[in-house]
Amino acid sequence: MVKKCFLIFTLALSLEAKSLYEHHCVSCHDGMTITLEKFFFRYLLKYSSEAEVQKALFAYMKNPKAETSILEPWLINRIGIKKPTTLNDKELDAALKDYWEQHKVFGKLK
Ligand code: HEC
After folding, report:
1. Cβ–Cβ under 8 Å, residues 100 and 54
2. CA–CA separation, 55 vs 46, rounded Å?
3. Is residue 2 part of a domain?
4. Could you give the CA distance from residue 102 to residue 99 in angstroms, rounded to a whole number?
5. Cα radius of gyration rounded to whole Å, the chain
6. Cβ of 97 below 6 Å from ligand 1
7. What are the tens digits of pLDDT across the range 74-85?
8. Looking at the domain assignment, is residue 1 inside a domain?
9. Would you report the helix, strand and coil content of the chain in percent, each value rounded to 5?
10. What's the pTM value of the predicted model, to 2 decimals?
């Protein structure tokens, strides 16, 4: 019984994680000139490994600053810095994993 509950709980969490990325990240980014995909490849080119990309993204979402942004200063000046994430660490981690999963497969380096 306990095992079953745990299974359902884990399943619910993973479903939640997917919708978190879709509903939280994608919904706000929808319609922005620079797509999430472009951001992703900029991060990939700069940080290379999954661990480093995740670390850099996590840090930026928590505490976005012009100095640590991947964007050029003139662009940041135009768009403005985003607000720190409202997700907790676990949620952010899950959303970023999903972000990685969705782009590593389909994307092509340009
Ligand atoms: C409320 C709106 C909003 C939400 C929610 C949001 N973003 Fe953003 N995001 C922005 C804006 C605006 C920018 C451009 C300004 C900037 O880079 O700080 C941005 C920039 C970024 C960048 C580029 C960062 C950089 O170095 O400048 C990445 C990557 C990104 N978002 C990923 C995500 C992910 C992943 C999530 C979900 C965990 C997310 N965003 C949630 C609005 C949002």
Report:
1. yes
2. 12
3. no
4. 5
5. 15
6. no
7. 999 999 999 999
8. no
9. 70, 0, 30
10. 0.85
Ligand 1 test: best mutation among 22, 82, 93, most atoms within 8 Å of CB? Answer: 82
Q: What percent of the chain has pLDDT over 90?
A: 69
Kindly indicate the confidence band of residue 3, based on its pLDDT and cuts at 50, 70 and 90: confident
Taking only the tens place, the pLDDT of each residue in 31-66 is 998 999 999 999 999 999 999 999 999 999 999 999
Q: How far is the CA of 28 from the centre of ligand 1 (A)?
A: 8
In a domain, 96, yes or no: yes
- Tell me if 8 is assigned to some domain: no
Q: Atom 37 (ligand 1): residue with closest C-alpha?
A: 25
Q: Which domain, by its residues, includes 51?
A: 17-106
Number of domains in the chain: 1
